Amino acid sequence: MTQQRRIIRAGALAGTAAIGALVLASCSTSAGGGAGDGQSFSLAFPVSNEAKTPYEILAEQYMEENPDVEITIDKLPGESYNTTIRTQLQGGNASDIFLSAPGNGQSFSIVPLAEAGLLEPLGETATSLIPDGSEHQFVVDGAVYGQPLNIAPAGVVVNQTAAEAAGITEYPADWQGVLDACETAAQAGGSYFVVAGSIPPNAGMMAQAIAATRVYAEDPDWNTQRAEGEVTFADSEGWQQTLQAIVDMNDAGCFQPGVEGAGFDAITNGLVQGTSSAMFGPSGVARDLGEAAGGEATFVAQTFPPADAADGAFGYASSTYSYSIPASSKNKDAAKAFLEWMAEPAQAETVAEESGTLPITGYAEMDFTGTAFEPLADMLAAGDFVPLPNSDWSNPAVYDALGAGVQGLLTGQKTVEQVLTEMDTAWGE
């Protein structure tokens, strides 16, 4: 099987889970770590539907290859995964391996969990997989606490079939092109973008996608400067432009009716039925949406257009998920043996195939022609990307403030200045 075919098969079932895993709410029970028998262990990850994720597929494969090992699979609702995992870790009853997130930005992110003493240090294999420049997202006080699983672009996913049916023959090259596409889609009876406006993480993802060219293309180290107190959100012209763009798109009818109260079902229904053309989120969703559309539509990954076409494309690509072991695990040796197996190229490729992402290593040499990633080929080859911003923010409250703030922009209850000031306040919490 060629590398190109592997990418074409890349699934987005986990991409949908990736969106759901960002949502905060509720709680769930866990299989826990068990008494510890030296070989078996438990594994937790988020799910958003009944379809198998790559995490479950690989766990089953590992058991087939190791008949003496039993993995207790703990599927947690994506909508509550953040808070559930944090609660379980604090209670000492989390699964022996769980899906974690690099950096700082979420409740299940590696850095705050490691700083709280809730994670087990890993070894050289995990260290060797960390993408260049991302060490700070996995390493705390010289020890690595997460094993990266993939490289995942994120930004905009486009239903090209729906866009063309609405009369939009080319993806917008600049800000004016975005507004023109919105007008064309509205005249055709739909909307260009569909947003789950009632879900703060999806609202926040929209803002991050726009910020790629307004903030990070000009200054890839903006987060570092914010951490050092050299800049703020409120005083950043790029962040002001980012949130003002959301206000302007809302006024221009770029979003579906009732966007402020919409959930994830609005995204799925809008894109599959073709009443909307684009969404904000991880690129892995492309294949899942294509399958949901019965193969009748073509979905591709894009970056949000720059203000001026001459500025060029800039976006996000990073290891969005990793495996970590709780400090409270009673089956650490068995868990670490599984992580060693997961690091092998064949397993890395399976994660990429089944999640609609790229392998943690070797993606730079891949041919993206004819795949959902083709529009991102030049960006990936040139390295014109940074990790998702919120993974480097000081704490999850900053992203919470952004998501809730964008909701306020959509309802007209908040101003751009208020949202950015609230993000600065959250940074210091």
TrEMBL record:
Alphabetized PANTHER family for the sequence: ARABINOSE-BINDING PROTEIN-RELATED (PTHR43649), DIACETYLCHITOBIOSE BINDING PROTEIN DASA (PTHR43649:SF12)
- Signal peptide positions are 1-31
| SUPFAM superfamilies on file | Periplasmic binding protein-like II
Recall the taxonomic lineage recorded for the source organism. Bacteria, Bacillati, Actinomycetota, Actinomycetes, Micrococcales
For this UniProt record, give its keywords in alphabetical order, as a comma-separated list: Signal
Q: Which Pfam family, an example, fits this chain?
A: SBP_bac_1
Q: Which domain of life is it from?
A: Bacteria
UniProt entry tagged with the keyword Lipid metabolism = no
What protein does this entry describe?
Carbohydrate ABC transporter substrate-binding protein, CUT1 family
Q: Which InterPro entries match?
A: Bact_solute-bd_prot1, SBP
